[in-house]
Amino acid sequence: MDTPNDAQLPAPRASDADREAAAAVLRAAVADGRLDLSELDERLSATYAAKTYPELERVTADLPTEALRQRPARTEPLRLKTKSGTIKRAGRWLVPPVIEAEATSGTIKLNFTEAECRHLDVHVQARTTSGTVLLIVPHGWSVVTDDVSSTSGSIVNRVGVTGEPGRPQITITGGVRSGTIKARHPRTGFWRRIFGP
């Protein structure tokens, strides 16, 4: 039986890590179409103002969070390297904060359209000799290529540096000799049916 003192115990205090975990759930919900951007802004404000677990639980109570709790965010870099072959990341995959992509004369293709990204800032360190590093990025994300150098190759950013609030930004650094580093949105309509995303 609870004593009067037990009934008056305060709710457990939330940590910074708890608030960031709740924020990651909210951003994932936007990516899944469960929340719109105005709801995200409102709930993020409540999340970062929350002091206790019950306050955080109210913010995410109507969202699927169990799978996210069981699958921790990836923190170690993803290292991809090819000499003349093709390496792809597509479908459902967990995006780390740092990706190292090196294509000598082959192709590395990173398709983020169905990926699970819990980081607002993703750094792609890309290097090509005569190969290609291609990023396929969802609408609402942004891509920055200001720190990529080129000898005689191509650096193409068809995504743009301005994204939607609360959506990830990919910063690409590295260099191109005679190859290509390219970021674009997924294809749609006729061209998607012919060439894929």
Written overview of the protein:
There is one protein chain. The chain is an alpha/beta fold and 197 residues long. The protein has two domains: 4-70, no CATH class; 78-195, no CATH class. The protein is 27% helix and 32% strand. The protein has six helices and twelve strands. Strands 1-4-7-11-9 form a five-stranded parallel β-sheet, with no helix packed on it. It has a five-stranded parallel β-sheet with strand order 2-5-8-12-10, with no helix packed on it. The chain has a two-stranded parallel sheet with strand order 3-6. α2 (16-31) runs antiparallel to α3 and α2 packs parallel to α4. The longest helix has 16 residues, at 16-31. The protein is elongated, with a radius of gyration of 20 Å.
Element layout with pairings:
Layout: H1 4-7, H2 16-31, H3 37-49, H4 53-60, H5 66-70, E1 78-82, E2 86-89, E3 94-95, E4 98-103, E5 107-111, E6 116-117, E7 121-128, E8 132-136, E9 142-150, E10 154-157, E11 169-176, E12 180-184, H6 189-195
Parallel strand pairs: 1-4, 2-5, 3-6, 4-7, 5-8, 7-11, 8-12, 9-11, 10-12
In brief, what are we looking at here?
This protein has 197 residues and is α/β, with parallel strands linked by helices. It is built from six helices and twelve strands. The chain has two domains: 4-70, no CATH class; 78-195, no CATH class.
